Amino acid sequence: MVSAARKWREKGIFAVWIFYHPIIFIVSWKHNEKILGCKKLLDRGWPASKLTQPFVGLLSLADAEWKARRNFVAPSYVPSVLEGFIPIILHHIDLMLDDLSVRAQTAGCLSILQDHIISITLETSLGLKNVSNSLRTSIQQSGIYFLNSQFDRYLRFYTWNEQILKIYNWIYGIKDERETLKECARQIIKARIGEKNMDLNENGIPPPDIPRRRNQAFLDNMLDNFKNGKNVTSEGLEDLIGELLTIVGTSFETIVNSTMWFLHNMAHNPDIQEKLYEELLGFDEKNENLTISQINELTYLDQCVRESLRIYPSVANSSRMVNEDVDIDGQIIPKGVLAVIFIYSIHHDEEIYPNPDKFDPSRFEPDNFAKIPPGAYIPFGDGPRRCIGERLAMLELKLILSNIIKRFRIEPLEREKSGIQIDLVIRPIKPLKFKFIPRDG
What pTM was computed for the model? Predict the structure, then answer.
């Protein structure tokens, strides 16, 4: 395998070994389709399982289990359901804009975005309308802390053992958030069941004879999956926690992070910001019958969002366990290797994106977008395991960003652009701060 690794390097593929785990890093879009696009390679491998351990969800489930769960929750992300979320999203955006007007200059905008975007997540994906501030804060802080600590954990291979982890946490005073997350899940279940006014069985969960609607919120689909006699504090609860972590990681933190990077790009490109503002002047976000089709007619907004996600994709990489030999340009990637596709590198390939660090929405004008090869633009992943929440994420981003730009002119507090650091998402090295200057009228 060592001699093969030298040949792979010439094709933009790099091999490393972590103990007995052989890993290849693919940094070229030319080979992406062979891995992410393969219908037989559906297992994300040990990094994904360790990320949410001991809970499992769509992010970490493998093959058959993933297919069954995805088929079950997919109806929660169809256009008819998403359009029902538009008034909810706009309501929380109005509150966010008011907060930005009052607090952004003194408190910065990150905490403001977090406070309101977590509310959007809870009311859309989870269907919860009246969440206490304490529960919302606990979900937000515990979920993010858990995911980030788990990411650190699988980078520290010596803490993979559960007993060693407990000792490590005790020495460094690190809190294990798993029990907090379990308690949050219990409260969420009770809250949603109460809102749905369900009859509960002896275990405190809805009986299976309640008619199930396919097109409903993510959490409602999960609740319908509980079976009579399953104890809500054991397997069913951990399934739900796994999906809640998936929601926090993909429907909340990535939206906050992508919003911050978009504002960063707007602040440092005032001409582009003003061109976008001109398009938005004719956009009636108060339209009670606003549809996804009408939002998608904002073509320059779409180009700006896509370009921002190209430069700063939601996640830096995606992994697959190679469960059969894969031929890439005559080189065999053997079974048993973990393949990691480095999305950030693919999005900065100068062959496809000249001057790749420049923010240039024209790359995504229809004629130019059509020339981008398959696999060279993958902010939500690619292939069968492409992010199931992509439509909801784009809807949220477009509504949040269009309303901010229409209400404020964004200027940077510091002229120097921030560098990046890569962990669960691509973050700025130092906090991004902006001036929010109210527009006339």
Answer: 0.86
